[in-house]
Amino acid sequence: MARRALKLASLAAATTGVYLYGNEFLDPNDFGVVRVGRAIATTAVITYDYLTSLRSVPYGSEEYDVLKSQIKELFASFEDTPLGAASLAQVHKAVLQDGRTVAVKVQHPKVQAQSSKDILLMEVLLLVVKQIFPDFEFMWLVEEAKKNLPLELDFLNEGRNAEKVAHMLKDFDFLKVPRIYWELSTRRVLLMEFMEGGQVNDRAYMKRNGIDVNEISRNLGKLYSEMIFVNGFVHCDPHPGNVLVKKCPASGKAHIILLDHGLYQVLSESFRMDYCRLWQALIKADMKRVQKYSRRLGAGDLYPLFACMLTARSWESVNRGIDRSPVSASEDVEIRSNAAAYLPQITQLLNNVPRQMLLLLKTNDLLRGIESALHTRASASSFLNMSRCCIRAVSTYQRSKNRSLYRRAQISLTEALSLWQINLYELFLWLKGSRLGNWVVALLSWMHHSTH
């Protein structure tokens, strides 16, 4: 058995020429450290994309038959048509011999070797453009690609991210993260629990399945507020294909399924605290603190533009309070036209802010797109959830920096009072919008007129 495993591993390495980022060959320890049984299984899985996509092994040859037989040993069934495909990988539905339905994420052939060439080409092109247009400030794109792409290409890293965020947000019973099958996964192939549902921006799907779009939007906001402000570990690719929703037949609750955990941003404590305080200032329309914390995050004199970029609101709305009114059609047009007019300033801002901010801006934009599709954009509940998370995060930080029991108790009391005020305001908003609230208002109005 060991000899057979070694032969298959050698064959896979020889016929594929797998590279890591930077054109280094795959570490032989990827096969040598693992158990013999895992080596057989993972080698069989790895060969799948070569049989279907690369087809470097001649059809009908001895090598082809050996590799195909190993796939049949591992899977009871395997759907050739991918469920989804992207530039780096594609996902297939399969059933293991023990009956478990799994999703198999297979990295495209040669993508690791090609990625370093693509980054080099991008760097050369950006340098040429900068020589022609000195004000062009997009070299940070290359820096971010060099940092993030190797992490995205390592599917074991993606599996670790999935387990970390599932543990981190375990108190949210509406969140589902696919379980990783480590014994069948490698750097290039990830086997995980198969989960399905409708895309998070599909209102028609939610209507057909009795799912409340407001509840989904509210829960999605809770997830990301917790990730950004409290934990500083942020899933940065929430496009609709990676966020699914499904109603649980047993409980009747709507679940949010979070997929594709390759791209995460880890926020430093100092950045996270400044970002928390900036959002608190934006929600309270405290312009002095907006200016202070925007400057601390690298915005400089462009802090009004920075505030508008973060909130996707006009400067007038930011000054008035972003929770006071939803985005109007005229404001949306104003924002779009200003984005084109202020492009040089926007590029300057992106070049000056901390690198951690770049993926957060992308994440904010994707979440806003989902809210727009669900018609729940800039709802009061989303700002209330953000406020709660910011209060908890800042209070936790302050307690960690104080050894005085009296001062820590004082911080906890202030935190409790602030959270209580938010809960009271949320109750007021609910009463205001409910039938019971309308009845109470009408009754109070009648009593007032009767006494006069």
Shape: globular
* Broad structural category: alpha+beta
Given the structure, what is the number of helices? 19
Tell me how many strands there are.
13
Mean pLDDT: 79
Whole-Å distance between the termini?
Answer: 95 Å
Question: Could you characterize the architecture of this molecule?
Answer:
The chain has 452 residues and is an alpha+beta fold. It has helices at residues 2-16, 29-32, 36-54, 62-74, 111-132, 140-153, 155-168, 203-208, 213-231, 269-284, 287-296, 303-311, 315-320, 329-341, 343-352, 355-374, 380-400, 405-433, 435-451, and strands at residues 19-20, 24-25, 75-78, 84-85, 89-96, 101-107, 175-176, 189-193, 198-199, 233-235, 243-247, 254-258, 264-266. The strands form four sheets. Strands 3, 4, 5, 6 and 8 form a five-stranded antiparallel sheet that branches.
List keywords for this structure.
five-stranded antiparallel beta sheet, 452 residues, four-stranded mixed beta sheet, 19 helices, 61% helix
SSE topology:
Layout: H1 2-16, E1 19-20, E2 24-25, H2 29-32, H3 36-54, H4 62-74, E3 75-78, E4 84-85, E5 89-96, E6 101-107, H5 111-132, H6 140-153, H7 155-168, E7 175-176, E8 189-193, E9 198-199, H8 203-208, H9 213-231, E10 233-235, E11 243-247, E12 254-258, E13 264-266, H10 269-284, H11 287-296, H12 303-311, H13 315-320, H14 329-341, H15 343-352, H16 355-374, H17 380-400, H18 405-433, H19 435-451
Helix pairs in contact: 1-3, 3-4, 5-6, 9-16, 9-17, 10-11, 10-17, 11-12, 17-18, 18-19
